[in-house]
Amino acid sequence: MGVRRGARRRATLVLWIVAAIVVAVTAVALSIGDYALSPEALWRTLWGGGERIESYVLFQVRAPRVAMALVAGGALGLAGALLQSLLGNPLASPDLLGISGGSGVTAVFVLLVLGTTGPLLALGAFGGGIAVAGLLLLAGRAQLDGGYRLILAGIGVSFLCAAVINFLMVRAKVEQTQLALLWLTGSLSSTPWWQVVTVAAVVLASIPAVVLCARWLPIVQLGPSTASGLGVRPGVVRVTTVTVAVLLTSVTCAFLGPISFVALCAPAIARPLLGHGAIGIGTSALIGGALLAVADLIAQFGIPGLQVPVGVVTGALGAVFLLCLLATSKGRHL
Fold first, then answer.
1. What's the N-to-C CA distance of the chain in angstroms?
2. Which of 5, 9, 157, 198 has the greatest number of CB atoms lying within 10 Å of its CB?
3. How far is CA 312 from the centre of its chain?
4. Phi/psi of residue 314, nearest 5 degrees
5. Where are the membrane-spanning stretches (predicted)?
């Protein structure tokens, strides 16, 4: 009981610290830019007392972008934590399993072949992600090696998806490929409020399923026989978990493009912070939002006079983080 209380106190403390970091990053992101806002002006404008230009800059330019970074990063953190807990493997993420690649193929097909965007793009991205997830589930249903073969299969699917995307890109017009390339890189620029509301609605709608998965997954990890004896159906848990992870990943891909490494890094950071072997789904969501918001700040202001897509920053930082993680593990389980 004492160990359990200590773990709960530590988890609560970590949640509060990460939440404070999220608030600080949000305040910085809303304040800096070509039209800087002092803390007093930011607070006044948030409560409706600012000038017209301050209100426009805050609520129409910066707030949607910051809100999308937090919501989308949180969704990716949730998806990564669910997949890693399901497979018992710290390398499991929508990126490495090919789910993002499947969403990318169908989204690029909608952009370049059908020539449309909007809801059809979101539906196409979700359909591609769920198709890849179903294929991987069928390929790895009998694997008992911690999911490594499933991850290798996902890497193979990712290469196949990349080949299909390249084929579609070289056959399209230059104007169309520029739009598709920006989407494939991943960007938060020109984010309208309706996209933020759509992603937030999907995340909120998935929370009941996430809570159920968080309760079931520790039991499923005990083994199919034990889980069945405790009244939990492993097949239902597996399908539910993958569907929720694909939904969260695909809805972010539909509007932002395939943002890489956030879903992998957020649970990897949450795990040592919690310190008791748990994935920490809620903590992973907060860390994912903070990571994407910080990456967007670096994308906007890291190089003076040049803004880069946020996917470039997350890819670079994520690759360095993964190499450091592998270098410092020294053969231990990550």
1. 27
2. 157
3. 15
4. -65, -35
5. 12-33, 66-84, 120-138, 150-172, 192-214, 235-261, 273-294, 306-328
Please give the structure tokens belonging to residue 277. Answer: 């072997």
Looking from the CA of 260 toward its CB, the CA atoms found within 13 Å total 23
CB 283 within 8 A of CB 18: yes
223-260 as b/e, with b when 16 or more CB fall inside 10 Å? eeeebeeeebebeebbebbbbbbbbbbbbbbbbbbbbb
Residues 6+ apart with CB under 8 A from 330: none
Residues 6+ apart with CB under 8 A from 225: none
pLDDT at residue number 4:
65
CA atoms within 13 A on the CB side of 267: 27
- Name all domains of the chain by residue range, CATH numbers in brackets: 66-329 (1.10.3470.10)
Both tokens of 311, joined, read: 């996917």
Radius of gyration of the chain (CA): 20
pTM of the model: 0.87
If you write DSSP's letter for every residue of 74-142 in order, what string do you get?
A: HHHHHHHHHHHHHHT-TT--TTTTTHHHHHHHHHHHIIIII---THHHHHHHHHHHHHHHHHHHHHHTT
Structure confidence at residue 140 (pLDDT): 58
Single-letter amino acid code for the residue at 92: A
- At 181, list the tokens: 């390339």
State how far the alpha carbon of 28 is from the alpha carbons of 24, 144, 305, 309, in Å.
6, 46, 19, 19
Counting beta carbons within 10 angstroms of the beta carbon of residue 68, is it exposed (0 to 12), middle (13 to 18) or buried (19 or more)? buried
Spell out the alpha helix ranges (H) of 32-51: 39-46
DSSP assignments along 47-64, one per residue: TT-S-HHHHHIIIIIIHH
